[in-house]
Amino acid sequence: MMLQFWFFGISIIIHIIFSAYATIVSHDGRAITIDGHRRVLLSGSIHYPRSTPEMWPDLIKKGKEGGLDAIETYVFWNAHEPTRRQYDFSGKLDLIRFLKTIQDEGLYGVLRIGPYACAEWNYGGFPVWLHNMPGMVFRTTNKSFMDEMQNFTTMIVDMVKKEKLFASQGGPIILAQIENEYGNVMGPYGDSGKAYIKWCANMAQSLDVGVPWIMCQQNDAPQPMLNTCNGFYCDNFVPNNPNTPKMWTENWTGWFKQWGGKNPHRTTEDVAFSVARFFQRGGTFNNYYMYHGGTNFDRTAGGPYITTSYDYDAPLDEYGKFKKFLILLTWKNLLGNLNQPKYGHLKQLHDVLHSMERTLTYGNISTIDFGNSASATIYKTEEGSSCFFGNGNENSDAKISFQGESYVIPAWSVTILPDCKNEAYNTAKITTQTSMMVKKPNEAEDTPSTLKWSWRPENVDNFILKGKGESTQTQLFDQKVVTNDQSDYLWYMTTVKFKKRDLFLGKSMSLRVNSTAHVLHAFVNGKHIGNQHAEDGKFNYVFEKDVKFKSGRNVIALLSITVGLANYGIFFESKPAGITGPIFITGRNGDETIVKDLSAHKWSYKTGLNGFENQLFRTESMSKWSVESVPFNRTMTWYKATFKAPLGNDPVVVDLMGLGKGTAWVNGNNIGRYWPAFISSENGCDAKCNYRGAYHAEKCLTNCGEPTQRWIFALYHVPRSFLNAEGDNTLVLFEEMGGNPSLVSFQTTRVGSVCANVYENKIIELSCDRKPISAIKFASFGNPHGNCGSFEKGTCESSNNTVDILTQECVGKEKCSIDVSTKKFGAPDCSGAARKLAVEVIC
Ligand code: GAL
User: Fold this and answer.
1) For burial by CB atoms within 10 Å, which of 194, 233, 496, 562 has the most?
2) pLDDT tens-digit series, residues 423-435
3) What is the residue range of the signal peptide feature (predicted)?
């Protein structure tokens, strides 16, 4: 017993000594220095509110195992201060807990306070009450804006300081960011923009965080701010000061999705190429944006039209994954869903770069230009040299001769030779498996194949029949002004009276609304006359429908729905949302058109919907639901079903196929907006997807002609998360447009098959993510071609039975390691070309 106390006491003392030990973070023109040592730093973005606290340890641990030194996050002002001076740091918003989780994992942190974030986050992270303050203009020398920005920034810095989380205090945070990509939009702000950025720098500096501040995409960043680069490639970036290291704050690992759009995919080869090239050309800090994209729960998606999924094709996929282990009474989760081969190929790159840290940060740099976009960069110290051979040509491989040896550098790739002799890594040669995810039906016991639904109508009568709201104005207002963004929904209602002999009546009449509503529903005298949304990114459209008005009083009720407020652009805070008009009734009589302008009518406003106010989504809601005649294709309808959590530990998603548009809740938690009825266009997908050549967000798209997002992440059935492992769970849907819930189902996602396509003399590891490999579907050693799922034999092939060899080595095991060599598979004659093993295994 005494001994235990003794150990306990010693460990507390050690802890105190270590946490009091400040880390000195500084920089010179070459690199960020930590305690005087120049560092090669690999970092990855994980935004805390896009996952749950239960997921953080696993995600961060996966980052560390993937070879990251640091985790980066923005701070989301509107989430923390939803109402002025009322703060929320609970649950997913527990910033301090997130930073401490980074610290517990022994990683560094990069804190991008902004507080403008962009990030495809609602309103770029600005609270809408801020917009509604008198005389407000964002991101310029506007007194009210600067006061509020300073207030929030100071508060965050103080919170972080209080917990001793800056490296200068012994904590993990080595860098802080103020503003975000202001340089991209600054021009139209004129001199005020220039003054603002100086003010930002001074304000940040005055907060005395003891670590360097960065400003990304700000090539006039005032000293001592470090200006950094964001983009798909940053090898050409030159900081604005010779004393600033070359740093890349956002290397976009993929791209985000918008409703109506397709699935973006940035190839692994190209991400690796961009990183290797950046380090070849003197870069020393690279942050992946995103490393884990996650989910835009609730109403956090930016816009307009950013989807609920923020997967981003990042190295860790949206879902992540848990494995439960009861260790010393704490729940430990050990797995994350690796987006392979991206995760593994980048991990190998990080390991190689770290192994060269000293030469890269202290070595003398020389380059050789071989022409045709091929070059060698040599980093040389007294202890040795490290080399990069780059080939930026997108069509042809480069054959170069270096120090008496010849090398082939595939098109659009970089080869790294830590000793300038032996190739340790090539960005285009992937030796990591490709994992193909599949969705499986809910296998929970007693779960019928279809859910049993009950329903309720949304009570809209007061609005569509009576036109009765909360306040009236003789003006059409921007939605933000009225709702303060407390809801997606705003009713605009007015009444129009026609006398029996009114010129209008009897004519062919229509209602014409000039709308910037992200989605608009129109009702006349209680009847739904139609809805409309923006097509092809045009958020300024005209809704026009023929309507029969009656003599006497007519009620026009327009329901405007926001789908994420704009998060990017010049003066984006004033981009209109809602129905700003004008609104007309037109009557046509032959060639004659009579127009009645309703814009300055008495408009009655009502924010939100009854069902939301009455919290129909709460499991304990006492409201009545009917199981009789569950309607299909009915607008403004609530649906509810109970379900059992799927068995096992795989992440759970809900398939919302058949529904229109709305919001989904699991056990009272808002899991986000859904819109499976929004189908992307048929054109523009690229099944082949060539990694060679510069990537852009329209390249390598998939999912043409399909719903942009069909599945929503329903989270795990682990303690404290959304699902109950035992007993019933509740799914509630609010369907706006009309849909058929009978197809809705719960599914789990897991690795379904795994492939590799590797040149000889490499070792490849195949793993089914802790499930046994069940069969070898395809295997060929020679010159096979095709992609995972569609491999084909080539013209030369080993006479050994490759499938049998692999069955012996892999089937029944959770993972197997294969030496891809002629010794194992035989030596087919492939006319001198390097042989390859292509294999697909079923999990
Ligand atoms: C950048 C911005 C990020 C994110 C990214 C695109 O311009 O800084 O916050 O929006 O674009 O995903």
Assistant:
1) 562
2) 999 999 999 999 9
3) none
